[in-house]
Amino acid sequence: MHSLGILLSGRGSNFVAIANSIDAGRIPDARISVVISNRADAPGIATARQRGLNALVIPSKGKAREEHDREVVAALKQHKVDLVCLAGYMRLLSPWFVQQFPQRILNIHPSLLPAFPGLEAQEQAFAYGVKISGCTVHFVDEELDHGAIIVQKAVAVLDTDDEHTLAARILEQEHIAYTEAINVVLQGKFNVVGRRLVTTP
Ligand code: GAR
């Protein structure tokens, strides 16, 4: 049984999509062992509690990055997590954290990376005037929004869009993409060659 740890800072819709996929059997042989937020007021942590999951708040405010990361990693290891899913976790992980889970930390980002890394990617894409945007699930490495790409989904930008309608259509695709990416990683039938994830038979 695979043991997932979810890290979030806010709304938690990607977390809910993952939890729903597990409950529906779309991610076989997996469970969510712990949900951790760095913010006590994250709606996602209340949702995790309502679903009866282990839900922890480990506040980041006022702590050095690695000090906070050590607390988070200790909690993940205590819950025997073998796959860490960042789901709107608005913190850069320290290199030390990344090294604790080699090729076992995923992130979702609401753009077609390497375009528009960082905050408010949907607004960045909309303001830039791209005609196609989307979302990316990738391995986490030491750089922001940077590791090898696992799954991407394209979303057309419509003339009638504003940044909110675009973000909403991207979010629908995020929820599909995260489940796909988790299955790719858990099935383990891939190699990472340079930056390229290549599936194997
Ligand atoms: C999602 O759109 C996710 O892609 C984005 O934060 C949102 C969290 O929503 N993440 C990033 O921008 C990471 N750089 P959620 O809390 O409803 O899952």
Structure description:
- Helices cover 36% and strands 25% of the residues.
- It is α/β, with parallel strands linked by helices.
- The protein folds into two domains: 1-101, Rossmann fold (3-Layer(aba) Sandwich); 107-201, 3-Layer(aba) Sandwich (Rossmann fold).
- The strands form two sheets. It has a seven-stranded mixed beta sheet, sandwiched between helices.
- Strand 4, helix 4 and strand 5 form a beta-alpha-beta unit.
- The protein is globular, with a radius of gyration of 16 Å.
- The mean pLDDT is 97.
- The structure holds glycinamide ribonucleotide.
- Glycinamide ribonucleotide (GAR) binds next to helix 1, strand 5 and helix 6.
Topology of this structure?
Layout: E1 2-8, H1 13-23, E2 30-37, H2 43-50, E3 55-57, H3 65-78, E4 83-86, H4 95-100, E5 105-109, H5 121-128, E6 132-139, E7 149-156, H6 163-187, E8 190-193, E9 196-199
Parallel strand pairs: 1-2, 1-4, 2-3, 4-5
Antiparallel strand pairs: 5-6, 6-7, 8-9
Helix pairs in contact: 1-6, 5-6
The protein binds glycinamide ribonucleotide.
CATH structural class of the largest domain: Alpha Beta
Oligomeric organization of the protein chains: single chain
- What is the total domain count? 2
Percentage of residues in helical conformation: 25-40%
| Count of extended strands | 9
Small molecules (ligands, ions, cofactors) in the structure: glycinamide ribonucleotide
Quick one: overall form?
globular
Largest sheet: 7 strands, mixed
In percent, how much strand structure appears in the residues? 25-35%
